[in-house]
Write a structure and sequence with these properties.
two-stranded antiparallel ribbon; 19 helices; mainly alpha; Growth Hormone, Chain: A
């Protein structure tokens, strides 16, 4: 008989701390690699003789394979076993990282990034499932706080590391740094990660049709979100084609899976109101996390003139605040419940985003510091209660599927947020520039006075452009605040309960 002590540790099993460290190494690699490459694309393009548009595929390829693998987490775990699947994902990610750093051609690098994304797409949901199954219900909020360090802080750490490596070393290092970490994580996974005693392997034939539909549907959707802005959205035949392909393939996949008794992806889990509501909020949190994580560095570099390293360092206060709130959130949940903590997090992020939307071209580091810290603090209050509440009622047998779907939804929310915010920033800038330029005439006394004082027409044009850019960034940042504020009522759909320690149990 295997017993479980009062603190939730299984006697005879590896220490919880080592299990947690093992999975967190994988999470950090996968999450950081989503954003670390972005600041290096210009350098990679120059070194490999590629255009900026071609180098964009280095990021797109990784995300394409990630979103296809994530929902397959449950099926792959059942087929190969939790430890085997996680260790194989680590090995694939590590080998692909080594290949990426050795690439001598842009399309070779894109291919290696596709392989790396297959491994990276599995690491997050598998790690989350391992933690949710390893920790008893009363300690899951704390486990998700630790997981949140990777999932929430990782996107902010990526640009800092990427900027530092590019400014001081060379671009292959952003991939090579994964190799020793990946090897250590693989060895630890083989030693410390154990399969569930109730784990049953799925030996049923592979539904090839469903697999193809899933790949086409999600792959096309991610392509549209990633490339839409570059190709001017629906004025491009490619975007129209892939949009239709995504809608048709995704619809066919959903219908097929709901009729299948042994589905590739367990979509019936959405019958849980709490799981569905949690995923709806996850879209918003992904929207804010990934969207603002991209928009803010662009503002810092394009408007304030920060270097990539300086832009990355400006995000650090938010990461520190997130680490603090991740520790406070589980404690707060014991007293007021997950819904109150989550609503507080949504509200604080809305305030921080609105505050950030007041920046001007004269802003300095400390003007960015406080609103960014406010946003970062909110993320801890978002992630822990949202994840705990969304996955709290999911049986262990369906946990792998649930975490895969949940990770996918958050990732797609981020991709959607980035696509929408970049599109709106571009449109807002055009509108603002047209409005400001219409007032730059000799009939305007201020313009006439400026020209009389020696300011040139070129300087006036530059002032119009920079002001229009500032207005556009401020508008999209405040739009993020409005979206978060409007999502607060969704919290009421989550089950109301407090996170409380559970008594010791015995597993036969």
């Amino acid at each position: 008989m295997t017993s479980v002590s009062a603190n939730g540790a299984v006697r005879g099993a590896p220490p919880m701390a080592l299990i947690t460290l093992t999975v967190m190494l994988g999470v950090l690699m996968a999450v950081i690699d989503t954003s670390i490459v972005n600041v290096a694309l210009d350098t990679i393009a120059g070194n490999l003789g590629a255009s900026i548009d071609e180098s964009g595929w280095v990021s797109t390829a990784y995300l394409l394979s990630q979103v296809i693998v994530m929902p397959l987490n449950g099926w792959l775990t059942a087929r190969f076993g939790r430890r085997n699947f996680y260790a194989a994902s680590l090995a694939l990610f590590t080998i692909a990282s080594l290949l990426c750093g050795s690439a001598t051609d842009i399309w070779q690098l894109v291919f290696y990034r596709l392989i790396q994304g297959i491994g990276g797409g599995a690491l997050q949901p598998v790690a989350q499932a391992i933690l949710m199954e390893a920790y008893p219900p009363g300690r899951r909020a704390g486990a998700m706080a630790v997981f949140g360090l990777g999932a929430m802080v990782g996107p902010a750490i990526g640009p800092v590391l990427g900027g530092y490596f590019i400014d001081n070393f060379s671009w292959p290092l952003i991939f090579y740094v994964n190799v020793p970490i990946g090897i250590a994580a693989f060895v630890m996974a083989m030693i410390f990660i154990r399969g569930s005693t109730r784990e049953q392997r799925d030996r049923s034939p592979v539904d090839v049709v469903a697999l193809v539909l899933l790949a086409v549907g999600l792959g096309s959707m991610q392509y549209v979100l990633e490339r839409g802005q570059r190709l001017d959205w629906f004025s491009s035949g490619q975007i129209v084609f892939f949009t239709i392909a995504s809608v048709v393939a995704t619809t066919a996949f959903v219908v097929r899976e709901l009729r299948d008794r042994n589905p590739l992806v367990d979509l019936r889990i959405f019958s849980s109101r709490t799981f569905s509501a949690g995923n709806a909020i996850a879209i918003v949190s992904g929207f804010g996390l990934y969207g603002t994580a991209l928009i803010l560095p662009l503002f810092l570099q394009n408007v304030l003139g920060f270097t990539p390293t300086e832009a990355g360092l400006a995000l650090v206060p938010g990461s520190i605040a997130t680490m603090l709130s991740l520790q406070l959130a589980p404690r707060a949940m014991r007293f007021v419940g997950a819904r109150v903590v989550l609503a507080t997090g949504l509200c604080i992020f809305a305030v921080g985003a609105w505050w950030m939307g007041g920046l001007t071209q004269y802003a300095g580091y400390w003007d960015v510091f406080w609103p960014r810290a406010c946003q970062g603090f909110a993320l801890g209050f978002l992630f822990v209660p949202l994840t705990t509440a969304t996955l709290g009622d999911v049986p262990n047998a369906r946990m792998a599927s649930a975490t895969g779907i949940y990770s996918l939804v958050r990732q797609l929310g981020g991709s959607f947020g980035i696509a929408v915010l970049i599109f709106l920033q571009d449109r807002f800038e055009d509108v603002a520039q047209s409005g400001l330029a219409s007032g730059v005439t000799l009939a305007n006394p201020n313009v006439a006075n400026a020209l009389h004082q020696g300011i040139t027409t070129a300087q006036l044009t530059a002032m119009v452009v920079i002001n229009a850019t500032v207005i556009s960034y401020d508008m999209v940042l405040r739009l993020c605040g409005i979206v978060f504020a409007l999502s607060i009522p969704l919290v009421l759909l989550l089950r109301a309960r407090r996170s409380a320690p559970q008594p010791a149990v015995h597993l036969d």
